[in-house]
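Instructor's aside before we start: the two examples that follow are unrelated to each other. I chose them only because their records fit on one page, so don't look for a connection. First example below.
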Amino acid sequence: MVEIKTEATTKLLKNLEIENKKADAKSAEVNKTTEECLQQRNTVEAEKAQPMEELKAALPFLEKAKAAVDSIRQADIAELKTLRKEATKDIIKIIFDTVQLLFMGEMVPVSPKTV
């Protein structure tokens, strides 16, 4: 009877050892995955910092642009409508040239009109 109990206990111990090895392997796998996730998180945090700094620097310009748009009154638009077509074209060209300068784009050469 003692032999049977000893044998059963030995089998149980072997099963426990096998299960412990499986648990250790799974734990190692989980730890590896955790480390990979932490590395990815650190990488993302580092990559996120630069765009956030650029955004912080750009926000004041955005606010100024919004304020400029909000400052346009209906009377300003009506005034533009009353200008001669030729004058309007020149104003539009000046505006687009200014935008090109701001974006450092290539300028189209301008030649004077002959009368």
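Example two begins here.
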Amino acid sequence: MPLYSTNDSPSGSISTPPSINKLCDFIDTCLREDSVLHFGEFCNDFSKILVDQLPNKVNDLIIRSLVYFKSDYPELAASAVLLIGIL
């Protein structure tokens, strides 16, 4: 099941702007139960798509990720550092 609906039907379903369809498709592909996620590669590809499709959201993501630098969980802090470093 996709994270977001891309259906523009009048039945009231939510539709996404075209700029994030590629990002949603990428996330849906990576988070399938039958796939193995390589987090570093995921962050790298996610960042490329984000910068290409939603460049105006990059600063917001960086600012929101800074909070996790001080996390009590080292994995979470390291993930935030990795993502920001790639961006």
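The radius of gyration is 15 Å.
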